[in-house]
Design a protein that fits this description.
alpha+beta, two-stranded antiparallel ribbon, 4 helices, 30% strand, globular
Length: 195
Amino acid sequence: MQTTTLSFRNMHTHGELFTDILRARRETFIVQRNWDLPEADGMEFDQYDTPQSRWIAVHHLGEVLAGIRLTPTTARCGIYTYMIRDAQMGLLESIPADLLYDPAPVDPHIWEASRVFVAPHVPAKLRVRVQASLMGQMVKTARDEGASRLIALCPRAWMRWMRRLGYQTEHVGPCLDIGGSDNQAILMRLQSNLH
């Protein structure tokens, strides 16, 4: 099992891994969860898949087991910034605007984690290892990019799981029903996790 961080600078050295991530996202979010998201050629994508983002994949023998996208909160592309901020500004119909208690941050030291998934076919006995690899690489990549905190809208249970792995997290928004599951915005501090 490998964990790889992709950017527009290095994706050409990793074969089809980027398109494999987008295919795995389609399987997870469109096929399994029935979310109404853009898709083409068997891949899910959106306006945040730009050169400003980074993509992390846990993969084995050409199969993506898990993934996540990281985007700086300073990102801009046309009218869009990053998913949580754009939702708060009313630009996204699928995410309620009241997802945060305070205004969404715009700070070079805060990055957004989005499109977090573990592929549905990953067996239960392997899930913890896959999740730990994904979170470890997420923290490393965020730190490498100069982040000291991450903000994310994720299933409510993820916060407890990240705390069990030793990551400091706090709720920064109310619990919301999004796509039929309880989701909540969290802020994760990276400074104390220097392992």
